[in-house]
Amino acid sequence: MFLSGGGEGSFVARVVAVCGMPGSGKGEFAAVLAASGIPNVSMGDMVRAEVRSKGLVEEPHVFGQVAAELRANHGEDVLAVRLCDRVDELLNTHSLVLIEGLRGTAEDAVFSTRWGETYRTVAIEAEIELRFQRIVQRGRSEDGDRAAFETRNERERGWGLDHLIANADDVLHNDVDLEKFQSRCKAWLEQLLAA
Description:
Blueprint: E1 2-4, E2 15-19, H1 26-35, E3 40-42, H2 43-53, H3 60-74, H4 78-91, E4 97-102, H5 105-115, E5 119-125, H6 128-138, H7 146-158, H8 161-166, E6 170-173, H9 178-194
Parallel strand pairs: 2-4, 2-5, 3-4, 5-6
Antiparallel strand pairs: 1-6
Helix pairs in contact: 1-9, 2-3, 4-5
């Protein structure tokens, strides 16, 4: 099920940013949109690229440390600022672009200022135990064990992720199997594109 926070005409958007706690289903949401021809840029990929460019070992604490260092050294909005021009390039040839992995209020402020009413946020929600099970199953190098998962949850809350989820324009609940969640994502996208 998904909930829209707006009323008539609320689905006008050219840039959509998806947020959610680790393991909530942001990547699956992005995959559904990508399969429909909508380009997406990943904020997490930017951190992964930074780790690789520094030649660091790809371990959970390293990804978190690099993400925190980027924000400390260049501002809380560093990833958003770096991403904007790429999104604008894509908007030259696409009517809709997805930003995957919005995590902080500073990032949201950059996007909102840049794109105004053509910017929209979507939150993916799932219970913590379900999220941890998914993290274990996907086995990404940045995920790690339960302690790493809890640390990551707290770090991302510290950037304002809870606020973003609570104030998102739309909410999709990912408390179902993958096929049903994909159907919810498709239904949301159809409604967005039909507006």
